[in-house]
């Protein structure tokens, strides 16, 4: 009867949790302001200090995972309730992996968010920060025709961590936002997959003209960094292994073109770059050196006047500070990211830290900018979690109370190397610490095996690790899923 005991204890704990949650609603201030402008007021002496985390990406999630919830309440504000495991996102665009495998719910990363009475996840965007009053302004995220209008609310913090990431750069090129698809979120990957499959099916419909067929099945990727290259590799695998079998009528029409202004994979060792160029060309990817001048609905125009018709356009030319980061009245690092010191604090304001792609060292630290990479974001999140726990244990967790706390060791970043898959069971592994440094660099099938093993072990939960392994095996045996759902 142990299952019955387990069930009844589960039931009673659920009841307690819901009662607690009901009680905790008193934390929200609704009395003086209209309900639609309520929020979480400053923490009281009998409550735990509150860490507010803006963003649920690599940096924010790693930080939340490490926070000691016996010391702090955690409030996360983000427009998505999951973290995206970006290194495997390109694989979901063509069905090598299912979308679920790269989405990790925040409540699984930090269970206190859904269990503790003072911890919350708010599906919202941060719109402003009032550093003087320790308050974050937010606007709820709602979608769909029947959804209520978004409303504003505020959240007071004892410690604030800005982990808002970055946004794709478009260099002000006209038409990119309107016609290209970025590859940063799960919904981008879903859009790419739907469009790719739609174009494949449309090009098979009787009556379609040759020229239109060619256009629909021309997939153009702009940007030859790791993301653009990995996506091109996945596409070419999809074409070679799946389209040729299951869309045999149109197999000779589908092509991939990768456009890059300089060299592809410029941060990798020259030998690896050459290998990737040869390999991609061998698998049918056309590499074009060019600068995009304009993007229209059905074609892009290069600087030299060349017109490139496309059916699918994926834009992956790096990232820069987002509009919210640019709008915040906080010290900035060269390049426009939020400025931070050696302990990841934002100088001149109290209790604000910033990590991940949205932050950079202020000039006075003399430190070089860190690359916009998950490994940087993750390590900053880990470091800051430990630091905040230390501050909390030294009674510095409350707002304006950490002035006398010794912060200890500074954050130091050591690059672990870079990896990129290039399709056809090949990958690059570059273990040099920087571009000029010495170190191991490998390319080929062994690298591909290292790439897969490394990312499989990095997937956050055992559940998703299992899903990824099963998806890889299923794809190997049965091919990719090509249903357009
Ligand atoms: C396809 C792809 C593949 C990649 N592969 C690799 C790789 O193999 N290795 C590697 O090291 N790096 C890789 N990267 C880079 C890596 O993903 C980023 O460096 C990393 O995600 C940065 O983490 P972050 O937490 O700073 O930002 P993000 O992970 O981008 O998270 C930002 C968070 O902020 C939220 N947010 C945005 N605006 C607001 C707002 N106004 N209010 C509240 N929340 C907001 C977002 O919803 C998101 O949750 C890849 C990136 C992509 C796109």
Automatic annotation (TrEMBL):
Domain FAD/NAD(P)-binding intervals: 50-381
Gene Ontology terms: cellular component: mitochondrial inner membrane; mitochondrion; peroxisome
GO MF annotation list: NADH dehydrogenase (quinone) (non-electrogenic) activity; oxidoreductase activity
Listed cofactors: FAD
Annotated membrane topology: Peripheral membrane protein
Domain External alternative NADH-ubiquinone oxidoreductase-like C-terminal: 415-481
Coiled coil: none
UniProt-listed Enzyme Commission number(s): 1.6.5.9
Cellular location(s): Mitochondrion inner membrane; Peroxisome
Catalytic activity from the UniProt record: a ubiquinone + NADH + H(+) = a ubiquinol + NAD(+); a quinone + NADH + H(+) = a quinol + NAD(+)
Cited InterPro entries: FAD/NAD-bd_sf, FAD/NAD-binding_dom, NDH-2, NDH2-like_C
Keywords: FAD, Flavoprotein, Membrane, Mitochondrion, Mitochondrion inner membrane, NAD, NADP, Oxidoreductase, Peroxisome, Transit peptide
Function in brief: Alternative NADH-ubiquinone oxidoreductase which catalyzes the oxidation of mitochondrial NADH does not translocate protons across the inner mitochondrial membrane.
Family of the protein in this entry: Belongs to the NADH dehydrogenase family.
Name of protein: NADH:ubiquinone reductase (non-electrogenic)
Organism of this sequence: Glycine max (Soybean)
